[in-house]
Amino acid sequence: MHRGIHTIRSGFSTSYDNSVPRKYSLDNSNYELNMRLLSLDIMSGVEPGQLDMGNSKVFFVIATTAAGATPQALVGDDDANEDYQFRFDDHAQIAWGTISPDQGGFQVIVDPGHIIPEDIYVNAWTMTTGANPNPLLSPVNFLITLAQVSNTGAEALLYQIKESS
């Protein structure tokens, strides 16, 4: 960590099991020093001139719980299921991203006000035509940037309670 900035950089291969999100422990055992997510950068791991990603859209999420980062098969026709597991009403999810080869771009949304007292879970997947989570068809790389924040003991306790509810 340099001047309170912490980065996590890694990637997911095509053999990655997206039913088990990757865990990164940020718990430093000091309730008054926590982390805040500053940014998320994602990119395809496909080199120019190599096999492309096809038309499969990649979905990427950061959450504060394993359940929040685990995609689920979509059921029914209701509009709430059209988000491909980007559950904005789930307070455990704090960042979302897509790589859309057919639309030629990336999109990332980060909840910048969310304080992280313990761990984060990171996951990436594609979807089948039947709206079920599927393994990646090509590697995906990511860079997560976090900042250390100071809190009072009371604020830290509230963040802990919020994370557990």
In short:
This protein is mostly beta strands and 165 residues long.
Task: Write a structural description.
With 165 residues, the protein is mostly beta strands. The protein has one domain. It contains one helix and ten strands; from the N terminus they run E-E-E-E-E-E-E-E-E-E-H. It has one helix spanning 153-164; strands spanning 5-12, 22-25, 33-44, 58-63, 93-100, 105-110, 115-116, 119-127, 133-134, 140-150. The strands form two sheets. Strands 2, 4, 5, 6, 8 and 9 form a six-stranded antiparallel β-sheet that branches. It has a four-stranded antiparallel β-sheet with strand order 1-10-3-7. Strand 8 (119-127) and strand 9 form a beta hairpin. The longest helix is centred in the C-terminal third of the chain and has 12 residues, at 153-164. The radius of gyration is 16 Å and the shape is elongated. The two termini are 29 Å apart. The model is unreliable at 78-83 (pLDDT under 50).
**Portion of residues within helices:** under 10%
Alpha plus pi helix count: 1
Give the beta-strand count: 10
SSE succession = EEEEEEEEEEH
What value does the Rg take, in angstroms?
Answer: 16 Å
Which ranges are low-confidence, i.e. pLDDT below 50, for 5 or more consecutive residues? 78-83
Q: Provide the domain count.
A: 1
**N-end to C-end Cα span:** 29 Å
- Beta fraction: 35-45%
Secondary-structure-based class equals mainly beta
Please summarize the sheet with the most strands. 6 strands, antiparallel
Dominant shape: elongated
What's the average pLDDT? 79
